[in-house]
C-alpha cells in the first residue's frame, strides 16, 4: 500500500479503508500459528508537510497457548497513529538537545515522496500480539514428566517440587528418621 505525500498534501485528507493481506510480511512461526486479512480504517492528514496517519486496525490471529500449546483464536483491535516526514533523520549528536529530554516529536522519516505503509502496519500488529497467550486463565498446561495436557486428563505422575538448594537438607532429614 503506497502512500504519496504529495497526494496527502494536495487533498488535505485521504481515507484508507479496506483489507490488506499480510502473508509474507508476518511470520508464521513461534507462537503465531495463523492470521486473517488485516482490516483497516485509517485517515491520512496533511500536517504542515507531514502525513499524519491514524485510525484503527483489526485482525484475527491464532496463537499457541503458552502453557498447553492449544490454538488460541483472538480478534485484535489495534489503534494506529504515525507521522511521516520526507527527509533525513537528524543526527542526535548534531542537535543541541539533552538526551533525556522528550519533546514528544515522534516522526518516521521516509526518503522519497511515496512509501509503503505495509511494514508499519505489520509492525503494529506484531507489537499488539499478546506476549503470553493463554487459552484460559486457569489453564493447567502440560505435565513436565509425561507431556499430557492436564486440561484434558489428569496424569498420575509424581511431581514433588523441591527447591534444588534445599535438596541436601531433605536428605539429611530422611536419614534422621
- Label the structural class: alpha+beta
Cα end-to-end separation: 74 Å
Low-confidence stretches: none
Shape annotation: elongated
Helix content: 10-25%
How many beta strands in the DSSP annotation? 8
Description of the molecule:
This protein is an alpha+beta fold. The chain has two domains: 138 residues, no CATH class; 37 residues, no CATH class. The chain has three helices and eight strands. Strands 2, 3, 4, 5, 6 and 7 form a six-stranded mixed beta sheet that branches. The protein has a two-stranded antiparallel sheet with strand order 1-8. It is elongated.
Write the layout of secondary structure elements.
Elements: E1 2-4, H1 5-11, E2 13-20, E3 32-35, E4 38-47, E5 50-64, E6 71-86, E7 108-110, E8 114-116, H2 118-128, H3 167-176
Parallel strand pairs: 6-7
Antiparallel strand pairs: 1-8, 2-4, 3-5, 4-5, 5-6
Main traits of this protein?
8 strands, YceD, DUF177 domain-containing protein, two-stranded antiparallel ribbon, 177 residues, six-stranded mixed β-sheet, alpha+beta, 2 domains, elongated
Summarize the structure.
The chain has 177 residues and is of the alpha+beta class. It has helices spanning 5-11, 118-128, 167-176; strands at 2-4, 13-20, 32-35, 38-47, 50-64, 71-86, 108-110, 114-116.
Amino acid at each position: 500500500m503506497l502512500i504519496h505525500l504529495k497526494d496527502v498534501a494536495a487533498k488535505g485528507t485521504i481515507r484508507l479503508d479496506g483489507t490488506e493481506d499480510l502473508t509474507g510480511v508476518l511470520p508464521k512461526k513461534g507462537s503465531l500459528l495463523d492470521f486473517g486479512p488485516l482490516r483497516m480504517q485509517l485517515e491520512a492528514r496533511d500536517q504542515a508537510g507531514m502525513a499524519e496517519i491514524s485510525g484503527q486496525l483489526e485482525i484475527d490471529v491464532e496463537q499457541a497457548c503458552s502453557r498447553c500449546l492449544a490454538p488460541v483464536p483472538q480478534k485484535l483491535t489495534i489503534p494506529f497513529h504515525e507521522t511521516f516526514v520526507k527527509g533525513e533523520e537528524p543526527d542526535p549528536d548534531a542537535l543541541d538537545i539533552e538526551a533525556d529530554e522528550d519533546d514528544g516529536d515522534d516522526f518516521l522519516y521516509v526518503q522519497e515522496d511515496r512509501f509503503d505503509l505495509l511494514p508499519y502496519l505489520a509492525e503494529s500488529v506484531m507489537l499488539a500480539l499478546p506476549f503470553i497467550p493463554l487459552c484460559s486463565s486457569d489453564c493447567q498446561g502440560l505435565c513436565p514428566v509425561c507431556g499430557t495436557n492436564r486440561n484434558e486428563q489428569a496424569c498420575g505422575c509424581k511431581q514433588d517440587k523441591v527447591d534444588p538448594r534445599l535438596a541436601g537438607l531433605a536428605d539429611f532429614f530422611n536419614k534422621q528418621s
